[in-house]
Amino acid sequence: MGAELCKPGRPHLLHHLAGGISISVHLLQNDFADFSRFVAAAGNDGWNNDQDAFYPAGYNVANVVSVAATDSSDNLAWFSNYGVKSVDLAAPGVDIYSTFPTKVTQAMRDGGFGPNYGTISGTSMATPHVAGVMALVHSNFEKTKPGFTYEDVIDRVKDTVDIIDGASKTI
Q1: Predicted TM-score of the model (pTM)
Q2: For the segment 113-145, what is each residue's pLDDT rounded down to a tens digit?
Q3: What is the largest CA-CA distance in the chain?
């Protein structure tokens, strides 16, 4: 997978919703390091990722951006993982109106999911907000800042977030 992504036309942004899936730190540090930002959900266990990392968001790699979830009152979501050192920022992740698959399995029905649209909560609902902002900053930098790096994009996003009391456990 990594070698394919390093070819011309490779992605500049990878968005990873699920946690606990094995993604090699080598892949993140080497194959993706020169060009990609990797936006990863911090996890939904309500724990401190500084003490017990949640991967791939927990990798201490410069191009990984770990995202916690906030609610509509800008408080850290009750379920969201956090970490002053390991989580980079937070974004809305509670009761997000989203698409659902048109084919629903019995396990999905048992979990309360139906086809088409509905609300769902999780750090995986917060990461698309951050990925979208990263894509917009990247697009702007392509026009205004020749020679920019993925660090420039990440720094711009992190340097311009609103600091809110509800996310004080994350930054």
Answers
A1: 0.78
A2: 777 788 899 999 999 999 899 889 988 888 898
A3: 51
What's at 23, amino acid-wise? I
Angstrom CA distances, 152 to 62, 106, 138, 141, stand at 11, 45, 9, 9
Query: In the chain, which residue ranges form alpha helices assigned H by DSSP?
Result: 2-5, 25-26, 106-110, 123-144, 150-159
Sign of CA dihedral 102, 105, 106, 108: negative
**CB-based contacts of 43: which residues, under 8 Å, 6+ apart?**
19, 49, 54, 57, 80, 81, 123
Q: Which residues are CB-contacts of 5 (< 8 A; sequence separation ≥ 6)?
A: 11, 31, 32, 36
* Terminal Cα-to-Cα distance of the chain (whole angstroms): 32
CA 152 to chain centre: 17
* CA dihedral sign, ordered 122, 133, 24, 105: positive
